[in-house]
Amino acid sequence: MIRRSFNEGWLFRPKADAFLDILGRADAPWEPVTLPHDAMVAQERDGSDTASSQRGYFPAGAYEYRKTFFVPESYRDQRVLAEFEGVYRYARVFVNGDFAGWCANGYTNFHVQLDRFLRYGAENEIRVEARSQEDTRWYSGGGIYRNVKLIVGGLVHVAADGVRITTPEIDAELAVVAVSTEIRNVSAVGRTVEVTTEIVDAAGAVVATSVAPVTVHAGEPAVLRQRLAVAGPELWDLDRPSLYSCRTAVTAGDEVLDTEISRFGIRSVSVDPIRGLRINGNPVKLRGACIHHDNGVIGAATVDRAEHRRVEILRQAGFNAIRSSHNPASKALLDACDELGVLVVDELFDAWTRSKVGLDYAVDFAEWWESDVEAMVAKDFNHPSVILYSIGNEIPEVGTPAGAALGRTIAEKVRALDGTRLVTNAVNALLATGPDLFASLGDRARPGADDGAEQGGDVNDAMTRFREYLPILMTFEIVGTKTAEAMAYLDVAGYNYLDSRYEMDRALFPNRVILGTETYPSDIDKNWRLVTDHSHVIGDFTWTGWDYLGEPGTGRISYEGDVESVGALSHQGGYPWLAAWCGDVDLTGHRRPASYYREIVFGLRAEPYLAVHRPDRHGQPVRVAMPWSWSDSISSWSWTGHESRPIRVDVYAAADEVELLVNRRSVGRAPAGEKNRFTATFETVYEPGEIVAVAYTDGVETGRTSLRSAAGAVRLDVAVDRDLIAADDADLAFVTVTLVDGAGHLFNTADRPVAVAVTGPGALLGFGSADPRPTENFFDTVRTTFDGRALAVIRPTGPGAITVSVTAEGCEPATVRIEAQAASLVPGLPQS
């Protein structure tokens, strides 16, 4: 079927009262928007609404969209569908005033049949309603936040998501590509058609062809299965993610009834406790990043380029795998992972039958879970990057017999739809064992009971208070017994914060394969050693790879004497906290010190890394350091106003020892490497100039890194990620603004308001910084930098030259030019 973008020409407003709308008295006017569009991120945050704390103090709401579009007479004998890749939430679709379809899940890809409601040769209206509410533990966004496509095909056509490709036999000489094609006939008579399937390599050459007749009875689907031999296959793997296309044509004589193009990769996946995870027979350890679905300063809007850029940066940071927490990933993110060679754990649910917050998906689970599974598998089936389906995250009922039985039912449903991939479940044993775990302590004191902390709150709150006790608690016998059935039906057992069981469970469950589906960032050195030393542990996924909106302040550090408000849950910060502040990469895509530490632990970086603690906090006792936090440091030696004051410098290095030089004078040497948790720490006095870290192994220098202080006038450094972009709804330009001196050194203590103006065929989609507790919004044209940086996201509105001008007090203005052209003219642009 022919797909085209249906993202443009929409109008949006908060949902109006129906009676006021009829009377023409609805308060909110319609405003034009291009999809994907996040309806929530434009709202003013409300610090007095504690119930909204988990979503970053954004208010919930109801939204409506409408679009008029012309339907030609030629569509009368066609099947016409609208594909919605994600609407948050409770999407209801109306065509010309009539109800056409709905979907309860905010992350599920769904189709709505339009043709029975259409007026041919005339204008038509489609209207979509959605609402967000107290239904999530993070920032959800709202409205039509993912792509919409219009799909048109003949009465005899390839079903939507009807081409499914597997590669059951692979060796160096030959690969068998098995193609299953579902043909549908919605006409009144049976038809015999011819289906031609071609396999096309990356260079555009046809490498295999199969032609077969298919008889399709009226109103019934027919499935054609073809096996095509590809000689000398180029395998898809992490280093060379080679992709093929499958071209399907349905014909009757000289008439082409339908065509379809599906991308796929030729690769095999296997796992066992002795050889671990293997891709194409080669062992792979998963260097994993958990991520949420929002895109920072543009909210939940899932524009293709934003997803692609995120995968690019995570891959550059050393990650080779992504866990889509806690919902199905977007198509654009999977496309990016296919193209860049990143593996995916795609996750279905954060709740089954037991709610974690008031109106979450547990309310709809019983009615919708099977269709949600079907939708995710259909979306993922041809993506070589997807190797694991996760059926849930920290599901409370998995520790009960009924919950384990339900989990087995879900797992078997997944396997019935796709027997080529592995099934996991991200199990939190604290949640799964609950009161039974503490009851098993008997007369022993309940950890934390005498510390004055409240005992209420969710599992994250409990984990915050019990951080030091958790590793011990998780080794109790009851944890193994209560989760045994839930783990037994999985191909890979997902362990959330259960690293203390990795070794013991090798003996208790010798056939179990373990994946660290969620771990603390500060534990990566110890956890990665467990991963590399044990074949049955196939990887580690940190919480989180990329900072995200909502769960505000989960990774914060606060000091004695700070005046700090706390959110509705004690592990979260009060207003104006917005972001979790626990990502290796911040909201703008800038890598934080934890990212470079992780890269060193992974063995991917030889040079040492300098992380300088903020001198204004030197010597202050830490009151709260959340389990998901990192040190309060950045990579800079520009601390104006702190001259001659003490300062702490951490140097991350895999080398035996590190020497620190300040203005060519040695501060001293300190051991580093794995035995010292890859960190050498120095206390010195800040003086402007240069610091250098020199790494030594066996007395021989193995690498050095330096930082220089910024000096003189503050300058605006403005750079764009790509100066040539596609003039369509799928592309974006990311413009970074940095405060620097004449030599390009960062002025991290010179933060100031920065103004952005866009001229030409472009619009400002979002503007902000990595500040986790801002009071400004992402739609202001003026934002204050954070640690000397800000990010503007530009969306093209047509072809031509876009100019972005940046101004700030005390700085010379700066501009950058972006050229927007037709997608076919942009080299290297991923083609759909």
Structural summary, described in words:
- The chain is mainly beta.
- It has five domains: 2-152, Jelly Rolls (Sandwich), CATH 2.60.120.260; 156-264, Immunoglobulin-like (Sandwich); 269-548 and 583-597, TIM Barrel; 607-635 and 639-708, Immunoglobulin-like (Sandwich); 715-825, Immunoglobulin-like (Sandwich).
- The chain contains 13 helices and 47 strands.
- The longest helix has 19 residues, at 362-380.
- The two termini are 14 Å apart.
- The relative contact order is 0.08.
- The model is unreliable at 448-459 (pLDDT under 50).
Major β-sheet strand ordering: 21-22-23-24-25-26-27-28
Shape: globular
Low-pLDDT sequence parts: 448-459
Q: How many structural domains can be distinguished in the coordinates?
A: 5
Alpha-beta content class: mainly beta
Main beta sheet, described? 8 strands, parallel, barrel
Specify Rg, calculated over alpha carbons. 27 Å
User: Helix tally?
Assistant: 13
| Strand composition percent | 35-45%
- Helix coverage percent of residues? 10-25%
What's the total number of strands? 47
CATH topology of the largest domain, what is it called?
TIM Barrel
CATH homologous superfamily designation of the largest domain: Glycosidases
CATH class of the largest domain: Alpha Beta
Termini, distance in Å? 14 Å
Mean model confidence by pLDDT: 94
CATH architecture of the largest domain: Alpha-Beta Barrel
SSE layout:
Blueprint: E1 2-5, E2 10-14, H1 18-22, E3 31-33, E4 61-71, E5 78-84, E6 91-95, E7 98-103, E8 110-113, E9 122-132, E10 148-154, E11 156-170, E12 174-185, E13 191-200, E14 206-216, E15 221-231, E16 244-252, E17 255-264, E18 269-272, E19 276-279, E20 282-283, E21 286-291, H2 304-316, E22 321-324, H3 331-340, E23 343-347, H4 362-380, E24 386-393, H5 401-417, E25 422-427, H6 429-433, H7 435-439, H8 459-465, H9 470-473, H10 477-488, E26 493-496, H11 502-508, E27 514-519, H12 524-533, E28 537-542, E29 557-559, H13 593-601, E30 609-613, E31 622-625, E32 633-634, E33 646-652, E34 657-662, E35 665-671, E36 679-685, E37 690-697, E38 700-708, E39 715-720, E40 724-726, E41 733-740, E42 753-759, E43 762-768, E44 782-784, E45 789-796, E46 800-808, E47 814-821
Parallel strand pairs: 21-22, 21-28, 22-23, 23-24, 24-25, 25-26, 26-27, 27-28, 40-47
Antiparallel strand pairs: 1-10, 2-3, 2-4, 4-9, 5-8, 5-10, 6-7, 6-9, 11-12, 12-15, 13-14, 13-16, 16-17, 18-19, 19-20, 29-31, 30-32, 30-33, 33-36, 34-35, 34-37, 37-38, 39-41, 41-45, 42-44, 42-46, 43-45, 46-47
